[in-house]
Amino acid sequence: MNDLTFLDIHSAAKLIKKRELSPMELTAAYLDKIKKFDPIINSYISISADRAMTAARVAEAHIYQDNPCSVLNGIPIALKDLYETAGVATTAGSRFFAQHIPLQDAYTVGRLRSASAVLLGKLNMHEIALGVTNVNPHYGTCRNPWDLECISGGSSGGSAAALAAGFCMGSLGSDTGGSIRIPASLCGIVGFKPTYGRVSLRGVIPLSWNLDHSGPMARSVLDVAILLQAIAGYDPDDPYSVRIEIDDYLRHIQDGVAGWRIGIAVGEYFSMRTAPDVLEAVHQAAYVLESLGADITEVDFPEARIAARANGLMTTSDAAAYHQQRIVDKPDDFGLDVLSRLQQGAAYTSREYILARRTQSLLRHRFAAFFEKFDILLTPTTPITAPPIEGPDAVAQAPVLTRFTAPFNLTGLPAISVPCGFSAQHLPIGLQLVGAPWSEAKLLRAGYAYEQATGFHLIRPTFVDQ
Amino acid sequence: MQLGALIFDFGGVIVRTEDRSPREQLAEELDMTYDQLSDVIFAGESSRLASLGLITAEEHWEAVSDDLGLSANDLPRIKDHFWAGDILDFDLVELIRSFRPMYQTALLSNAWDDLRDMLADHWKIADAFDEIVISAEEGVVKPYPQIYQITLERLNLEPGQAVFVDDFIENVQAAQAFGMQTIHFRSIDQVRAELKDITRGK
Fold this sequence. Notes:
Chain A is of the alpha/beta class. Chain A has 16 helices and 13 strands. In chain A, strand 12 and strand 13 form a beta hairpin. Chain B contains eleven helices and seven strands. The two termini of chain B are 13 Å apart.
């Protein structure tokens, strides 16, 4: 069998079930590869090799004892290091949490463990999730496997880089202004931010109680659907969780987009400062969906600009509230870019915050009306491809990279990023598909149709051959 | 499905920069690295626009000239130096010709609007191809499916009836996803061997 570490979850699960692939062999292949090559990328903060092999042994026993097994039985997963894991340090990429060893798993981590997934370790992230570069002063910069001199994006940069490099088969990220979708776009993998309230946030170290979303990341839409199925659902102990029945995300995933009404975002906000190769890739994606039978219409959302601004204001204000004592006690233990944003958040007035909340309500209303007429909306995930590490600082990058993602945190709408092409520098470009609240199944269906028609998700970076 | 056509990329496959020294000297003269200079010419915004046919090759060179702080008088010499190490692979062209008339042959290139004339007048290989598809003329570049579709429509073939050869893995993978047979170019010997296998139905 070829490189096991680039198998997708769907195929690996089938092989495991048929006893043609051993979870122990698979886990060992990942651990070996991480040990050899992750020092180049720095996607992991901690690796739980012994625990992973033990979990793989249990998964293997399930197969040989013919126990009923989940599709994730024996599948090697890694977690952004703000998902609490019982007995394993959960740092949030911060010096403050370096010794934080939770007593309990986050709700979603518990769901993965119950499914007998194998947890390989904890992944690098932008410090406290407040930034999009993953240049982390405490745990090191996470590099982009497509170009080691470029950022992985963030804040779930370790998750995206590890998936692109073949260091895990699936991951969980978190997204407050684009932190799942931005690194997914920059590293050429799939990242899904579901509707606000769809996936429990209990046990996920918060950045913003109002805007955080938990979601899956993987190398294909199908794999993301499998992970979402495992983690989605109502959690009575999470005050932000919403009791709405979950769909079967795989049942109609192959049904295509024929007859769908799809909007493609145009206008000054989406075009003016967007790289030509990104715009071209997104228009080509619309062409592909049109050739699959969808009806494409250009739409303008000038309000996206104020939505992104309101999201940034609320994120930094909420983060300043959560970290208020740390800002006072030990400000120097924060990285400079994060401290600067926290101080900025602390300085906003209640009036500004209230106006941002007003924008949130207006925009939710506006998008509700839009999705009465359209099935989904297409935008670029980011206006540019991965910028160099040694470029403008993290504070300057944030408003550029979150430009198209942040409006959908503010509105809580589900949004998925799928690979849709490459820049002239051979860096991946992401296509963002946005839907109405609770339309996860629909977005997965569109993303699947698109990736099957193009195959961009199958292209791998070559740094591991070097 | 019966094989009907062989489709080749141009830059990096039929013409390759075998001698890096002229470009290295030029980069040094401009106080840049080789890669930085290559990026300005091939990966900058104006190159992309030229590859899409939104500006001409001449306009692209003017933009490059501005980026590098050069005068209009410098440009012909810069262009000569930049291309001086590029070598046409006559063996590969011969190989391509040898497949005709059994199979149609095509060239599919992400290139500026001057390529067609260059193929005819400078490289003198235009007659080796039944179809020449240039991104600047079509308004779409590889690896997007539309340009593969355009090429196949010109050849009047289904995707499974064509073999596509390119040095960039993303173009190869995208063509594969489109349903074409593909060869990732590394050397002429490797391409010759793989084409031999494919045409013999192995």
